[in-house]
């Protein structure tokens, strides 16, 4: 039986009774454990102005985690490119790749990763978002082969050929990835609705690329929420923290990750039918249960989607529960 590669997406979550410093320390600890458990990639996502997320300065955190690990690939899942000049991203990730040769990944998205007011504070360029494909190509040019005659050069950066993934939750990213011959990762852990159609579009329109970092065949990844524990009852209880986080997204009341409730049923019963429907739709790609249950459900998911890799996020309130969840799944998967 073919197993997809397992990766971790870490939001560097801040629990309601913890601090950003503790969240960052937990991220380093989880990455070190994940390396020993055989996970292939450890990615962090750019988000801004969120009380429960400490990954706003994503490139800095990638360097911090890479400094304290030795073999696992560390990267961005992702950098929201229209928030930044491609040249600056090239310098940042070129520097990271120079320090940590062969271990840095750069996932690129075009969503803001925040609210409209914060987007303006970031000086987000909406025109750049409309020209996402062009921005990606500009960035690839800075990271490509050194050109001494170029008027603008990324140093460090040129010649590093940092591997680039295109991220998306709709068809737009799939089109860009296919046209440029780049790998594609779908954010089905929070926006699963277009997963299958986006993967089909990407595969059907894929253009092989001979450029450094380009592919000769499609390569795909999909996101999933997981919660693994020794019993199904305990996993479902721990998953209530994930439910309340998504409820906060739906209702606009975001905060730190909350302690688990007694049961999923008690949490759902406290919401309106519309809120229940919205949250349950967002978390359709979630696998909760014992190691065997989650392994089998995840295998069914990878078989159905045909993805080469999955990137997993576990939103348990307690750090030890997150560690245990990833450890149990790694053991079951292998």
From TrEMBL:
Q: Which domain of life is it from?
A: Bacteria
Annotated GO molecular function terms are: oxidoreductase activity, acting on paired donors, with incorporation or reduction of molecular oxygen
Task: Give the InterPro entries listed for this entry.
Answer: Bact_Lucif_Oxidored (IPR050766), CmoO-like (IPR019949), Luciferase-like_dom (IPR011251), Luciferase-like_sf (IPR036661)
* A GO cellular component annotation in the UniProt record: cytosol
Report domain Luciferase-like positions: 9-304
**Which Pfam families does the entry mention?**
Bac_luciferase (PF00296)
Tell me which NCBIfam families the record gives. oxido_grp_1 (TIGR03558)
Family in the record: To bacterial alkanal monooxygenase alpha and beta chains.
User: What name does this protein carry?
Assistant: Luciferase-like domain-containing protein
Organism equals Intrasporangium chromatireducens Q5-1
């Amino acid at each position: 039986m073919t197993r997809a590669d397992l990766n971790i997406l870490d939001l560097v979550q801040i629990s309601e009774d913890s601090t950003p410093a503790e969240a960052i320390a937990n991220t380093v600890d989880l990455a070190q454990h994940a390396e020993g458990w055989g996970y292939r990639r450890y990615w962090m996502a750019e988000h801004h102005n969120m009380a429960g997320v400490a990954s706003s300065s994503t490139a800095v955190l990638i360097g911090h985690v890479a400094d304290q690990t030795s073999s696992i690939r560390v990267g961005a899942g992702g950098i929201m490119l229209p928030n930044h000049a491609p040249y600056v991203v090239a310098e940042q990730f070129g520097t990271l790749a120079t320090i940590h040769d062969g271990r840095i990944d750069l996932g690129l998205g075009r969503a803001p990763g925040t609210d409209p007011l914060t987007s303006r504070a970031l000086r987000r360029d909406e025109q750049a978002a409309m020209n996402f494909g062009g921005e990606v190509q500009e960035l690839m040019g800075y990271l490509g082969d050194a050109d001494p005659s170029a008027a603008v050069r990324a140093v460090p950066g040129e010649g590093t050929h940092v591997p680039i993934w295109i991220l998306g939750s709709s068809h737009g990213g799939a089109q860009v990835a296919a046209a440029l011959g780049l790998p594609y990762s779908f954010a089905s852990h929070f926006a699963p609705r277009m997963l299958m159609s986006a993967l089909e579009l990407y595969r059907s329109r894929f253009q092989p690329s001979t450029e450094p970092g380009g592919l000769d065949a499609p390569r795909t990844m999909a996101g999933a929420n997981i919660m693994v524990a020794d019993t199904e009852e305990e996993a479902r209880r721990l998953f209530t923290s994930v439910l309340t986080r998504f409820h906060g997204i739906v209702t606009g009341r975001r905060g730190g990750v909350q302690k688990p409730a007694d049961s999923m049923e008690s949490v759902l019963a406290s919401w309106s039918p519309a809120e229940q429907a919205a949250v349950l739709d967002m978390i359709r790609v979630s696998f909760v249960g014992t190691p065997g249950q989650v392994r089998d459900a995840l295998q069914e998911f990878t078989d159905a989607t045909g993805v080469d890799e999955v990137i997993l996020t576990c939103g348990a309130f307690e750090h030890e529960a997150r560690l245990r969840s990833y450890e149990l799944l790694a053991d079951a998967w292998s």
